[in-house]
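Let's see one such:

===
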Amino acid sequence: MNKGSLGEIAVIGDNSMVTGFRLAGVTKYFELEGEDAEKKLAELLKDASINIIIVSEKVLYKVSGRLRSHIESIAKPIVVPVPDRSGAVEEEESASLRELVKRALGFDLYKGGGS
C-alpha cells in the first residue's frame, strides 16, 4: 500500500488513526496534534517523495489560512482528511474539507458520483 504507483503515503493524526494506518503498511506516520501537526504537514507538503498525506480532519480544519490556501493550490501531494476516533467534524466545518477532497480526487467522495 505504501509504495509503487501511489508513491509514499504519510499519515498525521491521533494514536488510533496512526495505528490503523501502520497496520495497513504505512511507514511514514506521525502521532501529532495542534501546532506540531501543522508544522509536520507543512514539511510533508515540501517532500517530493510524498504523494498522499492522510490527515485527521480536526488537524486539517485548524491549520492556518495560509497553509490551507497552499494545500488548495497544489496538485501534489493529495491531502486527504479523515475523521479521527472522536468522529467527524461538524457539518459546516467539514464543507471546506469536502471541497479539498473533491478537488483532489476529481469527484465528490461523499456522493460517490462523478464531478
Observations:
- The beta strands are 8-13, 28-31, 50-56, 78-82.
- The first helix runs from residue 15 to 23.
- The chain has five helices and four strands.
